Amino acid sequence: MNTSPRYIGLDLGTSNFKGVITDEKMNVLVTASVRAPMLIDGAIHEFSADFFVDRVVDLLWKLTRDYAGSPSDIRAISTASASGNTVFLDSHDKPLCNALSWEDRRIEGKTSEYLPGFDVAGVYDRVGWPYLEIFPLAHIAWLKKDRPELFAQLGRIAMTTEYLQYCATGRWGIEPSSATTFYLQDQRTCRYSADYLDWFGIREEMLPPILNEQTVLGALRPDFAAKTGLSTSTKWVLGSFDHPASARSIGALDEGSLLLSCGTSWAGLFVTKQRDAAIRAGMLVDPYLRSEGNWAAIFAFTQYGEFINARVDEYVDSSSTKFERLESLTRDGIDFENTPYVSITDPQSCRKAWQGLDTKTIAASILYSTSTDVRNKIEELDKAGFKADRLFMTGGPSQNAAWIRALSHLIGRSVVTPHRQFGGSVGAALMAAIGDGLYKNERAFFEV
């Protein structure tokens, strides 16, 4: 009979949900994945919040089904989330409409119409992220202007991960990392911005309370435990935004560390103590390891992974094994002298550069071009004072040895890929273990 604790880490991305069960040393015992929900109609990107929860239930069921031990072994669950999906609920905590994705563009180019007089320029310094027309501020403004009958029924505003946690435990809560992408938090104080709430006409009690990182929100409700094959003794621990969770998984705890996290968007996360410098450099800031005075400074190639998918689909392979095909075509390496660079985000550039080329050369060009984009960004930030001597990579591309070799060649340093596509999940499992009390903090785990 097993007596060692087990932990579940969930990586709730934009395209896919992934999960792991680990032992106390973060060795992965079980993995699973499911597709994330999304309904797309032009600029509209939305989905049912309840279907979002159902998909996570499916993921948890797959994990517990394949786990050889007892459900009571699993002590805690936590999440790494691609936050920014807004859920509007009534006074009974039931969704009033579909959740709006962080990719939703229904008010793009219309900020002055939907947020007249709002201090958009001041958002960056306060929130840690610049104002973007695809995140909750824009979503709330849309509901208030275009759906006033629903706005009048509002009982609560949250994001999809917080709604999931409520469905699992019956309790509301959010931590400062995820609250950053909620856009209503003053990042320096980790409190909601009263003037923002006043502008929209919403009350603080309508929002999930901001709690400390890795707080135990509660134990699983009996109905949720029954649907997932888990125990009512399993705790739900507050996690973080997805890239900081991946950074935790590989021990990026000090300045000099850089994590490349490659999913729907590609991001590079530097550990820094200089929040203001990160903002001056145009980076996204996360309150990462804030108890130690650290921050995460993140550069993002937004939706970069989707552009790569589109190019691979069109020029290499559109099947479910397309990335295995990409890897097989590049297994022998890349001829850096004769492989063309293209802007992956520009379809016309790709069409022109790749006209008449064979599939193998196009595959090499995809790896070379994306690695060059990352190299150029690292060099730009190095000049701004963000230096890294330890480089790590997580996400799907980290499974491709040729991609890793190309990136290492271009930046002149080795790239370590400890957890590959499950970095966010393992980071979430570590946060679950910390919340459970097994470790005092991340540093204590890596010092064992």
Describe the structure.
This protein is α+β, with helices and mostly antiparallel strands and 448 residues long. The protein folds into two domains: 6-242 and 424-447, Nucleotidyltransferase, domain 5; 253-417, ATPase, nucleotide binding domain (Nucleotidyltransferase, domain 5), CATH 3.30.420. Helices cover 38% and strands 20% of the residues. It has 18 helices and 19 strands. The strands form five sheets. Strands 1, 2, 3, 6, 12, 13 and 14 form a seven-stranded mixed sheet that branches. A five-stranded mixed sheet has the order 17-18-16-15-19. The two termini are 25 Å apart.
- The CATH architecture assignment of the largest domain turns out to be 2-Layer Sandwich
Distance between the termini: 25 Å
CATH topology of the largest domain: Nucleotidyltransferase, domain 5
Number of H/I helices = 18
Beta-strand fraction estimate: 15-25%
The tally of strands reads: 19
Compute the CA-based radius of gyration: 22 Å
Highest-level CATH class of the largest domain: Alpha Beta
Shape: globular
- What is the residue-averaged pLDDT? 94
The CATH homology group name of the largest domain? ATPase, nucleotide binding domain
Largest sheet: 7 strands, mixed
